Structures are given as C-alpha cells and as structure tokens.
Amino acid sequence: MVQETNSCELQVGSQSVIVREMTVQQVRAFLQDAAKGGTGDVVDALLLGDCELGTLKRMCTLTDEQINELKPSELQAVKAKCRELNPDFFAMLTKLTDLAKAQPAN
What we know:
Layout: E1 7-12, E2 15-20, H1 24-36, H2 42-46, H3 53-58, H4 64-69, H5 72-85, H6 87-102
Antiparallel strand pairs: 1-2
C-alpha cells in the first residue's frame, strides 16, 4: 500500500499542480537514476538552475506536455513549492554538488 506524503495544490497558470514531499524510497530511486546518467536536453538540465525539469516532475503531477506549455516563471513557482516541501532533498543535492566540486579533476 502506498502512503500519501505531505502535499500541496498549487495553481500555475490555468493548471492545478499537486506538489509532494518525496519519500526516502523516492529519493533513493532518484539517486539510482541519476547515477545512470542524464537523458534530458540542455533546457531540461539548465532552465531552472539548480533543479532539472526531470527532478521537478518527480515531486509534482506535471507532465512533459504541461511543462512545455508553462513559462519559466511559472516553473519557478512550482520549484519554490517543491523546495518548501522537500528541504532535506535539496540540502542533500547541495551537499552532493559540493562533494563533486571538491573532487580533483582527472
């Protein structure tokens, strides 16, 4: 049985989006997928700065088609709510980024 996590409904443009707190299992799945390498394009990876669009989708009900119809400012609002509901996840991403930067280049 899947248990619902902390969530919030957000109105973004004409769309209603549910943003959820990720479970530990979902965070582990994210890390496993991230270790396999990215499959997104430059826009997916860089548009929102420190949060890829694929990562955003893991925390909300937005589909690729819906994301494509939103403005970056609307996606920033979704990202802000994702950060609010997932502070530990984003802190972990910051730590991982810092660790990667500290590694000597080969």
